Amino acid sequence: MSDSQEPHIILYTTQTPNGNKASILLEELNIPYRVYKHNFSARTHKEPWYLDINPNGKIPAITDVFCDGREIHIWESGNVLKYLVEQYDPDFKLWYPHGSRENYELFSWLFFQVSGIGPFQGQATHFLRHVPERIPYALDRYHNESRRLYAVLEKQLSKKSKGYIVGDKFTIVDIAFWSLAATAPWAGLDLREFPAVHEWYERLLERPSIKKGMNVPEPHGVVALAADKSGELTKKYEDFHRKWVMEGMKNDAHALEQQRRGQSS
User: Fold this and answer.
1) pLDDT single digits (tens) 115-135
2) Pfam families, per this entry (predicted)?
3) Cβ(117)–Cβ(146) below 8 Å
4) Extents of the domains making up the chain
5) What are phi and psi for residue 62, nearest 5 degrees?
6) What is the predicted pLDDT for the residue at 233?
7) pLDDT one-digit tens code per residue, 56-66
8) What is the pLDDT of residue 241?
9) What's residue 144's pLDDT?
10) In this predicted structure, what is the pLDDT of residue 1?
11) Rounded CA gap, 225 and 237, in Å?
């Protein structure tokens, strides 16, 4: 993060693929920013002050000072990427000009990531790591669909001579897909099944902005677990995440029931 000026941007995040998208892009563009690390166990992302920033109570979100001098709230990871390049990348280093063929292609791939492979890999992770009981149908459904979607990415990268998803350069689409691919093993997926994807992933791992941004607001857990030969750390990591995920679902259900009762009274 550059310290050349007082940062206006605050990134609200925690260590997740969606959060990594924002921090990697901020590092790539060398934009000054501050970080607010949410505590999912303490449910800080559901507190009223944060719901004023992101009504959905998810991460990432950013606040910034807009061109009219007023604070603006940007949420949903794809929209955070879109906002940052539109506001801070006038030279189109990481995207393409409005109205160009590449611009439309870029946003097709970005929407594919946020609405397709992202949610399916997320569900593959949930049923593999968080749900106490094994549900074979759910495990097979989300695992195989995630593999199918990675096969779509594999086909695209296989025909790209420059080794990037859209056009001939590194863009926000590469950031979005890389952030998810970094957690593929946690979903039970092996990127080596997709040679072009695996080569692209390993190559981008050496990019300075990725090395730095992936470790915001704390070291990347899944990448670090690659060296866990005994499985002991993996088990602790899984137990920790299962606890807050299941408690969070219970709390959300309770809040909905309280809301329903309030509306009917």
Assistant:
1) 999 999 999 999 999 999 999
2) GST_C_3, GST_N_2
3) yes
4) 9-88, 228-263
5) -135, 150
6) 87
7) 999 999 999 99
8) 87
9) 98
10) 42
11) 9
State the SS3 of the chain: CCCCCCCCEEEEECCCHHHHHHHHHHHHCCCCEEEEECCCCCCHHHCHHHHCCCCCCCCCEEEEECCCCCEEEEECHHHHHHHHHHHHCCCCCCCCCCCCHHHHHHHHHHHHHHHHHHHHHHHHHHHHHHCCCCCHHHHHHHHHHHHHHHHHHHHHHHCCCCCCCCCCCCCHHHHHHHHHHCCHHHHCCCHHHCHHHHHHHHHHCCCHHHHHHCCCCCCCHHHHHHHCCCCHHHHHHHHHHHHHHHHHHHHHHHHHHHHHHHHHC
pLDDT of 165: 98
For the beta carbon of residue 48, count every other beta carbon within 10 angstroms. 6
What pLDDT does residue 227 have?
81
What is d(CA 186, CA 238) in angstroms, rounded to the nearest whole number? 9
Question: Residue 34: how many CA atoms within 13 Å on its side-chain side?
Answer: 9
The CATH number of the structural domain formed by 9-88 is 3.40.30.10
Is beta strand 61-65 parallel, antiparallel or unpaired with respect to 9-13?
Answer: antiparallel
Alpha-carbon distances, residue 86 vs 19, 36, 96, 101 (angstroms): 19, 23, 10, 17
- List, for the chain, all residue ranges whose pLDDT scores fall below the cut of 70: 1-6, 265
In angstroms and rounded to an integer, the radius of gyration of the C-alpha atoms of the chain is 19
